[in-house]
């Protein structure tokens, strides 16, 4: 699995990155979406890694994903910044067209798994 981050997105991420959170986590957020298959792919900064995490190929950051959540993402993805929001897309189409800076910086409602 690979995540390409555009130059514009990288600049924005650098401004948002908390000092003590060096990794980006790809996550399928189902909070408030109903069942487990209704959700939105997001990513956010974290300092927590579990035994279930795998590394996603990336040239800029350590990007991790829970092994069980990989099925919600594509093998090749791109993170873009459109001046207001981040967009996560793949060659197959848009995965999430509206990822807020707040979600990336603070992690939204994510509950980390125990090791």
Concise overview:
This protein is mainly beta and 115 residues long. The protein has helices at residues 7-16, 101-106; strands at residues 2-5, 23-29, 40-46, 53-56, 62-66, 76-81, 86-90, 93-99.
* Extended strand count: 8
Order of helices and strands: EHEEEEEEEH
Helix proportion range = 10-25%
- Kindly provide the radius of gyration, computed on alpha-carbon positions and rounded to a whole number of angstroms: 13 Å
Number of continuous helical runs: 2
Would you give an account of this structure?
This protein is mostly beta strands. The protein has one domain: Sandwich (Hypothetical Protein Aq_1857, Chain: A), CATH 2.60.300. It has two helices and eight strands, in the order βαβββββββα. It has helices at 7-16, 101-106; strands at 2-5, 23-29, 40-46, 53-56, 62-66, 76-81, 86-90, 93-99. Strands 1-6-7-8 form a four-stranded mixed sheet. β6 (76-81) and β7 (86-90) form a beta hairpin. The longest helix has 10 residues, at 7-16. Mean pLDDT is 86; it is low at 109-115.
Fold topology:
Elements: E1 2-5, H1 7-16, E2 23-29, E3 40-46, E4 53-56, E5 62-66, E6 76-81, E7 86-90, E8 93-99, H2 101-106
Parallel strand pairs: 1-6, 2-5
Antiparallel strand pairs: 2-3, 4-5, 6-7, 7-8
């Amino acid at each position: 699995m690979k995540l390409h981050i555009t130059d514009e997105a990288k600049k924005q991420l650098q401004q948002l990155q908390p000092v003590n959170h060096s990794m980006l986590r790809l996550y399928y957020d189902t909070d408030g979406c109903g069942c487990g298959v209704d959700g939105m792919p997001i990513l956010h900064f974290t300092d927590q890694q579990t035994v279930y995490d795998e590394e996603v190929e990336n040239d800029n950051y350590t990007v991790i994903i829970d092994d069980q959540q990989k099925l919600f993402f594509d093998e090749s993805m791109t993170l873009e910044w459109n001046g207001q929001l981040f967009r996560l897309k793949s060659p197959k189409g848009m995965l999430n067209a509206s990822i807020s800076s707040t979600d990336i910086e603070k992690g939204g409602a994510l509950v980390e798994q125990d090791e």
